[in-house]
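Q: Structure tokens for this one, please.
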Amino acid sequence: MRETEDKQHEVQRLLGRCMLRLQQYEALMKAVVAMHDIGGTLSTIAAAPARRSAELSTTNLGKVAERLFKSVIVPDGFSDSDDADATLASETEIRFRAVVRLQMPQADYDKAKQGVKDLVDLRNTLVHHFLELFDVWTAPGCLAAVDYLSDAYMRIDEHVGQLRTWADGLDHAKQCAAREFSAPEFLELLVNGIAPDGQVLWAASGIVACLREAARGLQADGWTPLESAIQFAAREHPLQTPERYGCRSWPHVLDASKLFDLRYTREPDAAKVAWYRERA
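A: Here is the predicted structure, written as tokens:
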């Protein structure tokens, strides 16, 4: 009786070891899937990783594995079916997306995918059917269970190592991308909408954003006094100047962007006043 109890304790220990390793594997896979594809606008990008992690937190391992081999680990010749135009938030915000993937020959991809599927099946067996397979109330049943669990742990551990290798490769790619994104040319494009060749993406430019911000607080009957907007820009966004965008003046900015209407009014015995509004 005592011998059987000792063997049962060994089964429990080995089963617990397998389950802990599987949880480590699942947590790592969810982190890989959550972080491989991050996108959004300047106002939403910071919260994107937490949002994706929360979405995956209640997803089972099988579903996460499906996503892993659908968009993270892909075969040679993979083509992203996402419609890039459909991801635009609006015409007034830059939206960008950073995606890292691990690409492999089709045969290697099929082998890796089947291996992870087999691991998911092993996990389901341990969680749901273990007591159906082994009579842990007898010494022979415990011995069979110990052999099975020892082999299962080796298989799980091998997959953890493989997943870590994939995660390290993806992390290296993200680090390389981060260096590119921190380059002055990229930041100039992202913040100010000025491409490396000098072309201005007016709808996403910093100076147009400044004019829109000024209009929200200064407009009257839909029109904003340009002089007030210029003062606002000098006070709140001093780096946003017409010269930065190759323009001679603020009216030149309004005209070059083709995003605003400009009109002038004049009171008797007074200088003319420039007003602008965003085109519908």
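A few notes: Residues 33 and 68 are 6 Å apart (CA to CA). Residues 83-89 have pLDDT under 50 and may be disordered.
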